[in-house]
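Teaching note: in complex prediction, the entire set of molecules is handled at once rather than each chain in isolation. The prompt given to students was simply: 'Predict the structure of this complex.' The entities are:
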Amino acid sequence: MSVKEFKCPGCGAKLKWNADEQKMKCDYCDNVYDIATLEEFESEEASNTADNYEWTPYSDNGEVSGLKVYVCKSCGGEISASGDTAATSCPYCDSPVVLDNNVSGVLKPDLIIPFSKTKEEAQEALKKFCKGKPLLPPTFISEHHIEEIKGLYVPFWLYDCSAAGKMRFDATKVKKWTSGDFDYTKTEHYMVIREGGASFDDVPVNGSTNMEARYMEAIEPFETKDGKQFQEAYLSGYLADKYNVDSVEAQPRANERVKKGMEQLLRNTVVGYDTVTTQSSSMHLETGEIRYAMLPVWILSTKYRGKVYKFAMNAQTGKFVGELPVSWSKFWGIFALITGIVTVLGTVLQIFM
Amino acid sequence: MKKITALAAAAFAAVTLTATSYAQEAFQLEPEAPMVVYFNNSDDEYIDAGITAGEPDRMFLENSVQAEPEDDAAAEDSEKSFTAQDILKMAGISLCIGLVIALVVCLIMKSCMKTAVPKITANDYIRKNSFNITRSRDIFIYANVTKKKRPQENKDNK
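The expected output is the structure of the full assembly:
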C-alpha cells in the first residue's frame, strides 16, 4: 500500500503530521497546512493543461475574375486591380511594376470594407502627423515629397472564436507593524485561480508578407460590422493585394493575440494583493471560424534625403501610423537644454529651499 | 507634446524636492566654534580681542556667555552659507538628475516618431459583455513572519 506524501508549497520539503497542531507541518520552514488546502493545491498543480486551439478549416468562395495582376520586379509582390486601375509602382517598395498576363484568379473575399477616407484626407493626415514632433528634422516638411499615395485593399484573415482560459497565480499580501524594538513583516501567500471565457469577433491577421504586419496591426481596429459582401465594383480605382499567407499559417498570430487578451482580462480580476506572479496559463479555443476579408488602407511613401519613409492610414477610421526621421542634432540639443535647465534650477532650489 | 511637458515637470519637481532634502542633510554646517568673549576686568568694557591680547587681568569666558543674536534673519543667513565645494556637490547632484530626466524625455519624444508598432492583444475584438468568470478561488497557503531589530537612535543627536 502506498502512502501519499505531501510537499511543502513554500519550500518543497516533505511535510509531516503534527499531532499538536493537528495539521501537516514543514520541519524546514515551520509552516503548517490543512490537509484540504494541500489536496486542493496539489490537484491544481496537476491539472495544468496545454493550450488547445480548434479552428474550422477555411473553405473559399471561389475566385474573382476580370482582374489584372501586377508583379513587382523588386519585392515579388502581386498586386491586383480592376480593369480600369493602373499600377505604376509597387505600393510596398516603390519599385516599378510590370503587368503579367498569365495570372491566376484572385480568391473571392467573404467581406470587404469600402474606402471611407479619401486621398486628400490621407495627405492631410500625414501633415497632421508631422505636427508637434520636436525631433523632426527642420527641413523634412519642405524637402520631403510624397512619392505616391495608393489606396490598397489588404488581405486579412478574420478569426471568430470563443476562448476559455485558466490561470494560476502566486499572490502575496504584506503587513508591516512595529512592536518594541522590532519591525515585523508578515507575508501571506495565496494560490489564486481564475477561469473564464470570452468571445472574440473578427480578430484580423495580415494575409500578406508584402506589408509589414506591425503597420497593419497599428492601424487597427477595423469595424468589420460595417463590412459589405464582396462586389468587384468596390475595387474600382484601388489596388488589391493577393494573400500569400494562408489561413493556417496566419493562425498562430491570432492564437497569440487571443491568449494574451484573455490573460490580461483574467489578470485584471486579481485584485487586493501586493504582488501577483503568473504561475501557469492555459487556453482553449472553441468553434473557431475563419473568414477572408479585404480591408482598406492608404499607403503613403515619402522620400527624404534618399531614404523612403512609409506611412499607413486605416481608410475606414482614419487612424494614421508611420515612421518619421529623427534629427539627432535636435535630439542632443533638447537633451543638453533640459539637462542645463534642470541642473541650474535644481542647484538654485537646493540653495534657497 | 503636452504629455511630455507634464511628465518632465512632474519628474523635475519630484526629483528636485528629493534632492533638496538630501542636500540639506548632506551639507549640514559644522557645529559653531565655542564663543569666546573677553572682558576688561577693570572697567567691564567690551573690547576687541586683538587689542586685549597679552593683558593679564582679563576674564576669559568660554561657552558660558551667549550673545543675543542681532536678528533672526541674520542668524538664518549665517546658517545657510555654503562653501564652493558644497555648491559644486549640489550642482553635481542636479546634473545627474538632469541627465536622467533629459534622457527619459528625449526617449519619449523619439518613441512618438515611430507609431507603427504591433498590437499585443485582441481585446479590441471582444464581443460586448461576453467576458465572464466561471471560477474564482483564492486559497490561503501559508504565511511567514520576519522581524528585524530597529536601529537604535543616538541619544546625543536628539
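Point out the following to students. Chain A touches chain B through 87 residues (CB under 8 Å). Chain A has two domains: 1-47, 53-164+194-322.
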